[in-house]
Write a structure and sequence with these properties.
flat; mainly alpha
């Protein structure tokens, strides 16, 4: 089951990476990078389930907090820039 989840996460990561590269706007790129971070959090969770070990849960939570704050900062930058 974790193999299927890992494959789906990898496929989603490829699609988000494509959107991050192709754009066309800065907002699309920000959403794509945010999606990649969410995929990374999901990958950490899948790995924790696969290993039956919750040591990386703190890393996933920290990554989620950093992503949330970072997205807010970038949104404020885009709003002030007028893009």
């Amino acid at each position: 089951m974790t193999t299927a989840a890992a494959v789906l996460l990898a496929l989603a990561a490829l699609l988000f990476a494509y959107r991050a590269v192709r754009g066309p706007s800065i907002v699309d790129r920000v959403i794509a990078v945010d999606g990649l971070v969410i995929i990374a959090i999901g990958a950490i969770a899948v790995d924790a389930v696969r290993l039956d070990d919750a040591r990386f849960a703190d890393a996933a939570i920290l990554l989620a907090i950093i992503a949330f704050v970072g997205t807010g900062i970038v949104a404020r930058f885009i709003e002030r820039r007028g893009a």
